[in-house]
Specification:
single chain; alpha/beta; Spore Coat Polysaccharide Biosynthesis Protein SpsA, Chain A; 2 domains; eight-stranded mixed β-sheet; three-stranded antiparallel β-sheet; Glycosyltransferase 2-like domain-containing protein
Length: 285
């Protein structure tokens, strides 16, 4: 019986039950193995050079979608080509970047990861690892399925100083995505916040795209014990929001690539409910 037929034979519920039992028995051990492997094979100097004025664009990629990565890199280059910048690509050691134009200031930062199907990706470590190698004072941290819209750099030139911020994030159809959000607003929970409002004490910075000053991030890294899907962005936001004010730049925009899964489109469920609630609360003030 081949693998596909065997999966069909077992059924979804049986496979899920087997996976839960497997994780219960071996989960902690496999996670320890993965953590140890990644720590030992991804070493970086503890000595950091003073940050220069400019932009370090950090993109996290698996390298599985060349079109996404190329679109991200080219869009960043179009915005920053006449400035001091670098594009840091954190991805597999054998990542093919030969198709990217040589004129682009590209830095491939290989990240060695132990791929175990029951252990999620080391997203926190990748972000920390990449920022440690950034040389400019302003850092964008993003996944490769986003890209910069024209005018992004001009928007930040007008925006002024910040410590941690985000900007407008659009889905594939041009509708607003989770960019400027509340997480634990009293009586609301999660929802989109109007761009004109700021409630840092109830907000988080969504982890798939944000902008941060390099030295602040180095002093306040993401918790590396949290892997993909374990809320590393929520944990980081809660740890820093007592120290600073989050900011939103409405002049600059990024967008999801059109080929990304449908679940990324718009907002729904508790996010939509929360958005409506906070709109009513603010109207009544």
């Amino acid at each position: 019986m081949d693998k596909l037929k065997y999966r069909e034979y077992l059924g979804v519920e049986t496979r899920a039950k087997i996976l839960r039992i497997f994780n219960k028995i071996f989960g902690k051990l496999l996670r320890y193995v993965a953590d140890t492997y990644e720590t030992r094979l991804n070493l970086v100097s503890n000595t950091t050079q003073p940050a220069k004025s400019g932009w370090s664009i950090l993109v996290i990629t698996t390298g599985q979608n060349k079109e996404f990565l190329e679109r991200f890199i080219i869009s960043a280059y179009h915005e920053l080509q006449n400035t001091d910048y670098e594009i840091i690509v954190v991805g597999p050691p054998k990542l093919d970047l030969s198709y990217i134009p040589k004129k682009i200031r590209l830095v491939h930062v290989p990240y060695r990861e132990l791929h175990i199907s029951t252990i999620s990706g080391a997203i926190s470590k990748k972000k920390n690892f990449g920022v440690k190698q950034a040389k400019y004072d302003k850092v964008v941290i993003s996944h490769d399925y986003l890209y910069f819209l024209p005018g992004w750099k001009k928007g930040y030139d007008k925006f002024g100083d910040f410590t941690v911020c985000t900007n407008v994030v659009l889905d594939q159809e041009g509708e607003r995505q989770k960019d400027w959000v509340v997480w634990d607003y009293p009586g609301v929970g999660m929802g989109l916040l109007p761009y004109t409002e700021e409630f840092t004490q109830y907000q988080i910075i969504v982890g798939n795209y944000f902008v941060v000053k390099r030295d602040f991030f180095l002093e306040n890294p993401i918790n590396e014990n949290l892997r993909w899907g374990e809320g590393e962005d929520v944990d980081w936001s809660l740890s820093i929001r007592k120290k600073i004010k989050f900011r939103i730049n409405t002049e600059s925009k990024v967008q999801f690539s059109k080929e990304i899964s449908k679940y990324k489109r718009g907002i729904s469920g508790i996010w939509l409910e929360g958005t409506k609630k906070i709109e009513h609360i603010l109207l009544d003030k």
